[in-house]
Specification:
This protein is about 20% helix and about 35% strand. By secondary structure, the protein is an alpha+beta fold.
C-alpha cells in the first residue's frame, strides 16, 4: 500500500510504535527501518551496529542511526540474538535504507528468543496498513526516498 508516498508492504510484520519492519524466515527474522521512519530520520550519515552474537532485550538498541536530523537507536521489536548485520552494505552506500528500506536497506538479522510472549503488539497486512495511515496523518509525514 502507498499512502502519502509512504510504502507499507502488506506482506511484512510491523512494530508500529518502534517503526520497525520484520520479515520472518523460519527461526530467523530480518529487520529494518520503515519508509516512514527513514523519511523522518533523513539521510543516514552513519550506522553503528551491535556485535553479531549479542543478545538484545526487547526495546533495546540493535544499532544506532545517525543522520543530519537525528541520532537514536534502532530498537529490537522483541528479545533476540543478532545473527547478521548489514555493515558491509552500509559501508558501500550509507543511504541504503533511504533508497530501499524494505530490500537492500535491511539493518539486522536476528533469532527471536521470546517471540510468543513478546509479539502481541506486532501487526501485519491490512491492519498494519490502517495503523500506518493513522500514524502518517498524526505525524504529518510525506515519504521521500533518496535516488541515485
Amino acid at each position: 500500500m502507498i499512502y502519502y508516498a509512504c510504502d507499507i508492504p502488506e506482506d511484512l510484520t510491523y512494530d508500529i510504535e518502534r517503526d520497525v519492519w520484520i520479515r520472518f524466515d523460519g527461526d530467523f527474522a530480518t529487520l529494518g527501518m520503515t519508509d516512514v521512519a527513514q523519511t523522518r530520520c533523513g539521510k543516514f550519515a552513519a550506522v553503528s551496529f551491535r556485535d553479531v552474537g549479542k543478545k538484545v532485550a526487547q526495546g533495546k538498541a540493535l544499532a544506532t542511526i545517525e543522520s543530519a536530523k537525528w541520532v537514536g537507536p534502532f530498537p529490537a521489536p522483541f528479545s533476540c540474538e543478532i545473527v547478521e548485520v548489514n555493515e558491509s552494505g552500509f559501508a558501500r552506500d550509507i543511504l541504503l535504507a533511504n533508497k530501499d528500506p524494505y530490500g537492500i536497506g535491511w539493518l539486522v538479522k536476528v533469532r527471536p528468543m521470546n517471540l510468543e510472549a513478546e509479539s502481541s503488539h506486532l501487526v501485519t497486512g491490512e491492519a498494519a496498513a490502517e495503523k500506518y495511515k493513522e500514524r502518517i496523518k498524526e505525524l504529518k509525514v510525506n515519504c521521500l526516498r533518496c535516488i541515485d
